[in-house]
Every structure is written in C-alpha cells, then in structure tokens.
Amino acid sequence: MSAVQAAILGLCVGDALGVPVEFRSREALQLNPVTEMLGYGSHSQPIGTWSDDSSLTFCLMESLIECKDINLFDIAGKFTEWLWRGYWTPHGKVFDVGAATARTIERVNDEFIRPDLAGGKDEYSNGNGSLMRILPLAFYLFDKPLEARVRTVTEVSSITHGHRTSIISCMIYVEVAICMLQGISLPEALLRVGKTMGQLHFPSRDLIRFNRIFSRDFSSSSKEEIHSSGYVVHTLEASIWSLLTSESYAEAVLKAVNLGEDTDTTGAVTGGLAGLQYGLGQIPADWMEQLVRLSDVMELCSKFERQFYYS
Question: Is pTM, for the whole model, over 0.85?
Fold first, then answer.
C-alpha cells in the first residue's frame, strides 16, 4: 500500500477537516466539535476544500517530480504561480495565505533575492508556514545522509521561514516521518530523533524549545497544556500529542482539529504522520471521496511515488 498516498492524502484530509473551523476557539469546538467533513464556515468554501497547506505541499511535490532534485528557484516559482495565479488551488483562487509566506514570495520576485535567503529570520517569523508543506522531503531524503537532510530541509524551509526554530521544527517532522517509513513506532521515532537533534550544531537555546516533545511523559500532557496557535512549535507539539494520544487516523486528526485556532494546519501536520502511521486504508473513505480535485491529487501522488517510492 502506498506510503506516499497515505501521507499526502492524510495531510490533505486533515487540512480539509480544519478549513471550515479555522480561527474558531477551543471552547466553541468543545461545544460543537468537528466529527465529519464540513463545508463553508470560516472561509465560505465548499465541503472537501483544502487550503494553502496542501497547495504548497503539492507545489513542492511537482517541483521534485519535474526537476528530479531540489531546485529552489523552481519551488519558489511554483509558490508564486500559486499565490498570484491560483495554481494548485482547489477552486482556482487563493483564499488563505500566511503573511510571512506572502511576504517572502513577493521578496523573491520583487527584490530578485535568492529563494533560500528570502524567509524571515527574526523571532517573529516562526509561523507554521514551512512545516505545513515539508512532508514530501521525507520521501526525497529517505536514503540521503544526515548532512544532506539538514541542508535540504534548511534550504526548503528558508524559502518562507528562515529562523532556526522553524528549520528545527521542519527537521524534527521530516526525521520522524523517515523513521515511520522505516516501520519505527512514533514513541521510538521520537527517542531516535531526539538523539539525532542533539548531535547537530544547533545552539542549545534553540533546541531547548523542543524538550517537551522529546520527554518520555509528553503523551501524559493534558489538553490544557497543548497549544494550537500558528506558532510553529505549538503546531508540532499539538500534532505529535494528538498522535500519541490516539488509536486511529480519524481520532488523531479530529483531536487535532478540535484543539481550535489554526485548525487546518494542525489537522494537516497531524494528518500526514497519521496517514503514515495507520495507512491509506484507515483514512475514512467518505472523507477522502469528498476532497476537491481528488483525481488530480491521486495522479500527483502516483507520479511522485514512481520517482520516490517507498512501500
């Protein structure tokens, strides 16, 4: 069964579940939780509509397919086509975009800056806009040495988010996904990735932000201790916690979405790993069938799988 389809459709379904309730508070969702695929709501979009999370993931996949390697200018070019011309959007028009992502795409085009130098590097540039689209690199980097994995994740994150906190978040997510592709359980993957991160040359003041994720009792954290804002560390924590405390794909993504606030991205980031953990067959069929442009997404996954295939 295709790990690519499981991961990417898992991401896309989680994204679409979260779109109608984005920005809704946790308290409101506790009273009226998401239990199925919905339509309209926050962005007035039809049922099964995915957001920029999936769009930029698809752009990265397509660039890898066409270039057969990392081409930062091509990736940035596809991001530009998405933002300005609605490329790889569900309905031909962008309805949701993070401020940092929009700003850096404009910098690449208006200032002719090198793509991996475009992303903001200040403390306030740590939204989840690169984490939400980074998952395809787990397949591309699966058999690459650690040094190459660090370099590539850094470059691709930095197109929009160049601060070390964003880069480390992306690195952890990709490394966990690679472990899961190897059949390693999530708790064991976290132990391994924690050791790996400790071997890299990131300052301790940056790594300390991720201590909670790697602690053995993280899964015992209460829901009140888990935040679900657009801050990249919050998204990573919320996603891993949702997986650690669930027993199915559906339970994990619904738990993530019902945390509130940045629901589409928390759902997408959770959904990608949940797809890997539980497999394509465990993603509810009726949720997948309601995805907008499902045939296009499936075709993209097939092309990507043929080039970067790991069963």
Answer: yes
